[in-house]
Amino acid sequence: MIPIHDFATDTVEKTPFKFIPLNQRSDYDTTKAHRHRYYEIFLFAKGGGYHEIDFNAYNITDCSIHFVSPGQVHKVRREPDSFGSILLFSSDFYYFGTKVNLPLYEFSFLNTHTQGSPIVQLNEHQFDELLNLSRMMGAEKSLNDVSGREVIRTYLHAFLLKCHQYQSHQNPQQHLDGHGLFLKFKSLLEDSYTKEHLSSFYANALYVSNKKLNELCKTFAGSTLSDLIKERLLLEAKRLLLHSNNSVKEISYHLGFEDPAYFNRFFRKHLEMSPVLFKKSHLEPERMEDELA
């Protein structure tokens, strides 16, 4: 089963915030697939290698920032001479004690299931600006002090806003009308996809017509409303097939399918193979890759 790391159990994280050098992570093997119950932000000053996040492989490049959200399955295989830093924080830490922060779901790089990329590519000046913000967070020693935690949260919010600003320049769609409603849909989908598979549920919950919500999905994600629901179900199905010990029957029930046979047909229709064959075809190459590494 894929390991799930948390601040409460990891030996290096006793507080819901950390800023550490990239090479300090030695409590578990980051080259093996794993997930967290907190956010991880990688600041790669020197690139090399690749970072796999939810079955998508991204090259690690100089001056790039990689975002991994709670629940996402990832592994990092970087070159020995690459270096950088990592920010770790929980959603509770981000929200506690302040009412001014932008909700985390509004940052597209933290919510990539239906839109956006988890990578923000920067120039050297932009990267140095964000690295300095990170270092100021790391230099703040008063984690046990209310004002000290609030200082870190202020820096963290500024950090995320700057990333949002730079990414928005690369993706002007985020300024179009309806983007806020689309973000609310993304948040609702993440909360409800295992229970609600019908497009009408999401439209009714957001007080819009199916047609309107479908148009927003096509504008901001390039996919229809029903396709985004299916894609989220398939992503979680693939995660569980490869990184849990659950049977296909258990996975189908977890994802809200009352009939495992229907889940099998659904999976085969969209991936052109059965869940069992998908698992076998992916796990065997991964074992060979691990043996050669």
Automatic annotation (TrEMBL):
One of its GO terms (molecular function) is sequence-specific DNA binding. Pfam families: AraC_binding, HTH_18. Residues 183-281 form the HTH araC/xylS-type domain. InterPro entries: AraC-bd, Homeodomain-like_sf, HTH-like, HTH_AraC, RmlC-like_jellyroll. Keywords: DNA-binding, Transcription, Transcription regulation. Gene3D superfamilies: Homeodomain-like, Jelly Rolls. The keyword Transcription applies. The keyword DNA-binding applies. This is Helix-turn-helix domain-containing protein. It comes from Taibaiella lutea.
